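To: structure subgroup
Subject: Chain for Friday's discussion

All,

I'm putting the inputs and outputs inline so they're searchable in the archive.
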Amino acid sequence: MSQDDVVISLPDPLERDACLAADLVNAARRLLAEGRFLDLGALESRISDLCGRIAGMPKEEGRRFSEFLQEMNAELISLSQEIEARCNVLAIERTAGASTSAYRRLD
């Protein structure tokens, strides 16, 4: 190999999967903001698999994911709060709509 050859360093599969998990969280937030349907099954299984694989690593090797896991935890808590807020808004809208239609029936 000469000095002019380019060496491409690809992330290991676990790093790639960590990036994909982060992308799924971002996609879920985007869908929620757009008021679209969320299927969190893929996110749950990917996070579970990722955490299991990291937990199975030797301690020193797994430490390199510590910051990522802390950030991912914060993102998941934030997503959970956003989902809860959206559910509250929908419940209020549903209740307001039911009240309005009940009053219309009395007229």
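Points worth raising on Friday:
The CA atoms of residues 17 and 49 lie 9 Å apart.
Residues 13-106 form one domain.

D.
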